[in-house]
Amino acid sequence: MKIEFQRLPLRSGVGIVVLNKDNKIFVAKRIDNPTNFWQMPQGGVDKGEKFFEAALRELKEETSIENVTLLKEIEGYISYELPDYLLGIIWKGRYKGQTQKWYVMRFNGNDDEININTKKPEFLEWKWINVKDLTNVVVHFKLEVYKKIQKEITKII
Length: 157
Hints:
- By secondary structure, this protein is α+β, with helices and mostly antiparallel strands.
- The chain is built from 4 helices and 7 strands.
- The chain is globular, with a radius of gyration of 15 Å.
- The termini are far apart.
- The model has no long low-confidence stretch (mean pLDDT 91).
């Protein structure tokens, strides 16, 4: 079974760092993992969709946030693989992880514009955190991704 999963491709995805006016980062707790792990908005890229379009779509779908300004497109792509116990479960077993294009955006709105109770909710709750705390709240298999993102964010703020 292990060999079969290793042949699975990585899913093409995007990730969005949303910074508020105080340079705090938006994170949310997933419905399907209600333990004390938080993540930034992220998701897959649809066929024929450009990465930036996917980032804006995912952000709106997951958080209702639309009032943003692009601060930076992080160079290159960042990948992660799922741990063995999630292979075959996440994404209906079609992928073994994600290769993501990340964007840093400034949220220009007010907190009351954020709504995670969307058509297909993914999050239970959300909050703003300091950049230095980003790697303390993430699930273990995304830690290296978040370390790279954290380093990029500190160059901007």
